[in-house]
Amino acid sequence: MAFWFCCGKVSNRARRGKEQPTWRVFSLKELHSATNNFNYDNKLGEGCFGSVYWGQLWDGSQIVVKRLKVWSNIDETEFTVELEILARIRHKNLLSFRGFCAEGQERLIVYEYMHNLSLHSHLHGHHSFESPLDWNRRMKIAIGSAEGIVYLHHQATPRIIHRDIKSSNVLLDSDFRAKVADFGFARLIPDGATHVMTTKVKGTLGYLAPEYAMLGKAYESCDVYSFGVLLLELASGRRPTEKLSSTVRQSIVDWALPLVCEKKFGEIADPRLNGNYVEAELKRVVLVALMSAQDLPEKRPTMLDVVELLKGESKDKFSHIENSEMFRNPLDAETNDGTSETEDSFDYISEEKELERPLRENAEL
Ligand SMILES: Nc1ncnc2c1ncn2[C@@H]1O[C@H](COP(=O)(O)OP(=O)(O)OP(=O)(O)O)[C@@H](O)[C@H]1O
Ligand SMILES: [Mg+2]
Q1: Which residue's CA lies nearest to atom 9 of ligand 1?
Q2: Which residues pair with 126 in a beta bridge?
Q3: What segments bear the compositional bias annotation Basic and acidic residues (predicted)?
């Protein structure tokens, strides 16, 4: 079975490698006791894979246990993919994996606990009003999460496409260091390949690159698009799409672009910052975000470029972006009013959308 095959490979690799594996197999009994029998009071949230619980091990260390909803073959694939990837990666900006449990029908993944929960909870959840993230923290989160993705795209072997970059998958430790999480949708890119083809488009609406949503071809540039949306969210405090009326939604990109063309950067800044931000950095974040979240994948920067630009390390590349056509042309109000017709149910949900027509391997973007 795929799961045991995967775990066999993982343990072999760990045995062959010089470093000791940092994860282990947990018993169900141990996880029951750590989470007070998966008590409702221990529940941190729920995603499309299942429920997430806080727990404490006998040695006092705090953990998070993700318990898959209902076991099925589909969940099994996502479970094995996530384990395979988690066992390969180690980076300061990627969530650490403590181990897993597979007993009977139960499939559980154990992670380190992130004291400040997700970026989503700080931008849109209960933390957003009590103590809004200050600008320094936002910059640190932008650069840290970008560095985590650089590791996946450029340093891991084989390279990894995350496919579900979004604010609820960026977790924050006690020091507000960003850690990218959730590899259940991720894919390893075989050596020599430029992309992976999928028959099912996975990810979260509002963050999906258009070519991936339409053709099911996943490149690293699809993560760059999602990261661009996340950067705009971080700078503005807005959601990836906002409702204009009961049937019309506006994407954060369509909202921000005209403001940039009119050089109204201050109107993009999150009002909860009360004007306390570094103007040059805000401009950098917003311009890099819009370059990343543009429709043409070949025009998007790589994540290496994104990190360099966010850190302000490349004056040449930045002035090239500043002078880009897309920020100069006045918007044509008649052909692009920045809105699109969507269904209500499209409101910020994770979904697995079957492609409606067969995919062509050589389809042009
Ligand atoms: N390691 C962790 N430390 C602290 N909180 C966590 C951790 N992992 C998840 N959470 C919390 O649990 C919530 C649910 O996580 P989960 O990944 O299941 O759902 P999601 O990110 O909202 O959606 P998706 O299933 O699409 O990833 C997160 O928003 C976060 O607040
Ligand atoms: Mg998640």
Answers
A1: 52
A2: none
A3: 350-365
Q: Which of 43, 66, 117 to mutate to test the pocket of ligand 1 (most atoms within 8 A of CB)?
A: 117
* DSSP tag of 288: H
CA atoms within 13 A on the CB side of 136: 2
Q: Domains (ranges, CATH) in the chain?
A: 2-112 (3.30.200.20), 119-362 (1.10.510.10)
Q: Cβ < 6 Å from ligand 1: which residues?
A: 44-49, 52, 64, 95, 111, 113-114, 117-118, 120-121, 164, 168-169, 171, 181-182, 350
User: Is 95 in contact with 21 (CB distance < 8 Å)?
Assistant: no
Nearest to 198 by CA among 357, 364, 6, 355: 355
Residue 263: name the closest of 331, 327, 333 by CA. 327
Enter the pTM of the model: 0.85
Whether residue 202 is annotated as binding a ligand: the answer is no
| Cα(88) to centroid(ligand 2), Å | 19
**Average pLDDT of the chain to the nearest whole number:** 83
